[in-house]
Design goal:
Layout lengths: L6 E5 L2 E4 L4 E2 L2 E5 L1 H14 L6 E10 L3 E2 L3 E9 L4 E10 L2 E12 L34 H4 E7 L8 E7 L11 H9 L2 H4 L10 E3 L1 E6 L8 E9 L5 E9 L2 E12 L3
Antiparallel strand pairs: 1-2, 2-7, 3-4, 4-6, 5-9, 5-13, 7-8, 8-9, 10-11, 11-14, 12-16, 13-16, 14-15, 15-16
């Protein structure tokens, strides 16, 4: 493909999706990961000062994203000297498709007692693997990221530990932050830990919530992922987020389970 980013800027606050955003479930819609990255980018850019960091992001997915320009807008929900709540929306043709709320908190002071001992760096050195997701459209989002499975795999069912990193930029001329990379690849948690064949027993996530104690390095992101389904109850996908330095946070997806 000619473009080397998920989006190009079409106008102020408006982003044109490139073919790299095409969903594994069909080339006419976008995977929500790159747009989630756009939303967290907007939250980061709206920080009151460098003393604040994005601590938690919750994204509600109101409708599928067609392969059309996305307008991203940000508003302050709750201003504050120590905590700030921001909301970013992604709209297509005046219809809000994704809503992200992000808590921005002042950074922990260096004098604050550390609760957990520093985690040991990961000994794993990911190397991009050839991958194939059964029944998926591969010439888009799936090819725009590099994948390495420490355990499990797209062709297997059950918990898995995967590493992923975008091969292209989020927007031209910028290196995606650790938060942005986490959102781009983190929305694949269910795909990493498939429970059943996705075309026969599909699960659709209605949200994506991420809490990071520290910003991951802008390189490989690890997803220690598991999907659970309870008959008569609900379904969810969860992952421990990390990088080569060790654990960084947690991620959850609430899933709608249906029989195709």
């Amino acid at each position: 493909m000619e473009t080397e980013s998920f989006f190009t800027q079409a106008a102020p606050e408006v982003w044109e999706p490139t073919p790299w955003t095409r969903s594994p479930w069909g080339p006419t819609t976008q995977h929500a990961g790159p747009t989630s990255g756009l939303l967290v980018r907007a939250l980061e850019n709206a920080r009151p000062s460098e003393e604040f960091r994005v601590a938690r992001v919750g994204i509600d997915m109101l409708s599928p994203l067609p392969l059309l320009p996305v307008r991203v807008e940000v508003r302050v929900v709750r201003p504050g000297k120590r905590v700030t709540l921001l909301e970013a929306t992604a709209s297509v043709q005046d219809r809000v498709c994704l809503v992200a709320r992000g808590w921005l908190l002042r950074r922990v002071d260096e004098s604050f007692p550390v609760v957990d001992e520093p985690a040991a760096p990961s000994a794993v050195r990911p190397v991009a693997q050839e991958i194939d997701l059964p029944g998926a459209f591969m010439d888009g989002y799936m090819s725009a990221n590099e994948w390495f499975f420490e355990s499990g795999g797209f062709g297997e069912f059950g918990p898995a530990r995967a590493w992923a990193r975008p091969r292209v930029a989020l927007v031209p001329g910028e290196t995606p932050s650790g938060w942005q990379r986490t959102l781009i690849v983190g929305d694949s948690t269910y795909g990493v830990s498939l429970t059943y064949h996705p075309l026969k027993f599909p699960l659709i996530n209605t949200d994506l919530t991420v809490v990071l104690d520290r910003d991951p390095d802008p390189d490989w992101i690890s997803l220690d992922a598991v999907t659970s389904v309870v008959a008569g109850g609900g379904a969810s996908a969860r992952a421990a987020i990390g990088d080569h330095r060790g654990p960084a946070g947690v991620l959850t997806q609430t899933m709608l389970a249906s029989v195709a």
